[in-house]
């Protein structure tokens, strides 16, 4: 059983991306955190980070065989309509995660076109948000 861990544009450079906003953990650190959380249940993680929306859409299409997903869409939260439509067809629970508290930031980050479709949303807790999302999916998905 695999958990889809989808990260959008600019998240591949975590660790050196505006560390005052996003911290110093790398995406590899976050992937390890999620893996460690789901490993006791025998799940593995399918990590996908892409800067292009189309590649993320493809990963969602290819994700039907996963059990659930954690999605940090990055700035695609604002107008990623094709990612939104792909997720509308994703047949498993998925959780939107943002490292930062987007509502404490610029107004253009206050609306997510994806959030109405998500099972839940976590924002502002940094890398721990991914771990908590994984924990929630473990509870939501029956083996
Ligand atoms: C982000 C918040 C988005 O507004 C931003 O465009 C990102 C990262 C976060 O994890 O806090 O790329 O999704």
UniProtKB/TrEMBL annotation:
Which UniProt keywords are given for this protein, alphabetically ordered?
Amino-acid biosynthesis, Aromatic amino acid biosynthesis, Lyase
- Signal peptide: which range, if any? none
* Residues where substrate binds: 72, 85, 99-100, 109
Catalytic activity from the UniProt record: 3-dehydroquinate = 3-dehydroshikimate + H2O
What enzyme category does the UniProt record give?
Answer: lyase
Extract the coiled-coil ranges from the record: none
Q: Pathway involvement?
A: Metabolic intermediate biosynthesis; chorismate biosynthesis; chorismate from D-erythrose 4-phosphate and phosphoenolpyruvate: step 3/7
Return one GO MF term: 3-dehydroquinate dehydratase activity
InterPro entries according to UniProt: DHquinase_II, DHquinase_II_CS, DHquinase_II_sf
| Keyword Disulfide bond in annotation | no
**Sites annotated Transition state stabilizer:** 17
What's the EC number here? Answer: 4.2.1.10
Question: What positions does UniProt annotate as the active site of this protein?
Answer: 22 (proton acceptor), 98 (proton donor)
Q: Name one Pfam family in it.
A: DHquinase_II
Reported function: Catalyzes a trans-dehydration via an enolate intermediate.
Indicate the family of this protein. Belongs to the type-II 3-dehydroquinase family.
PANTHER family recorded? CATABOLIC 3-DEHYDROQUINASE
Q: How does it assemble?
A: Homododecamer.
Q: This protein is called what?
A: 3-dehydroquinate dehydratase
Please name the source species. Answer: Saccharopolyspora rosea
């Amino acid at each position: 059983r695999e958990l889809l861990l989808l990260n959008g544009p600019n998240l591949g450079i975590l660790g050196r991306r505006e560390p005052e906003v996003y911290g110093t953990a790398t995406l590899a650190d976050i992937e390890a955190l999620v893996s460690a959380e789901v490993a006791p249940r025998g799940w593995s993680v399918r990590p996908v980070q892409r800067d292009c929306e189309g590649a993320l859409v493809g990963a969602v299409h290819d994700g039907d065989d996963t059990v659930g997903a954690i999605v940090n869409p990055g700035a695609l939260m604002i107008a990623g309509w094709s990612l939104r439509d792909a997720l509308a067809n994703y047949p498993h629970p998925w959780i939107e995660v943002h490292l930062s508290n987007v509502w404490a930031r610029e107004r253009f980050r206050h609306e997510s076109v994806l959030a109405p479709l998500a099972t839940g949303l976590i924002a502002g807790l940094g890398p721990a948000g991914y771990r908590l999302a994984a924990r929630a999916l473990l509870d939501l998905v029956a083996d």
